[in-house]
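(Fold this chain)
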Amino acid sequence: RRLERLADTAAVRSTVRARPAVDKARDAKLLAFAYTLTGEREYAEQAATVLTRLRGPAQGGNWRSLDDMVQGAADLALSYDLLAPQLRAREALEAKTRLALFELGDELYRSRYSWPSAGGHTRDIRQYAALGLCALSISDYPPPPGKSCPTAWYRRARERLIERLDEQTCRDGAYAEGPGRQLEAAQLYLSF
């Protein structure tokens, strides 16, 4: 019942056009998971509606910060992966979603948090996990000339994620920045 309430709320919010892109990506993920768990096509259709209203950074999407791009890229990659069979039948929407994922992945590949940042290495871990999710979801995407490819994204994400996790794990197994930051990081790196 809780899943139905959450999905219904996301569906209602999807009708509001002037929402931040990160919120749209989160709603698409929620609806994609609802579809996957229940098999009800209505959720897949509602997720597709959300995806039609989501735009990547270069397309004028409302991405407020690098943190939004990190969270939105991860949510969009997961929703794309869950909805891939339904999106293949809708070529234009699939192409638009893949382009948004490419734009987000390329931005995450080129961007860095200014150091020291309030989130420490946790923000880096989240960024590399989101980059890896983008790379896996569109691994066959042909990049435009002069742009990095998803294979390069994956390599960087894997290498840097392992480095940052090693730096954050103390000898006793505790997370150096505390349990709250560990949970924040785990929300993305466990998906990757």
Summary: The CA atoms of residues 28 and 63 lie 16 Å apart. Helices lie at 2-13, 21-38, 41-53, 66-88, 91-110, 120-137, 150-168, 179-189.
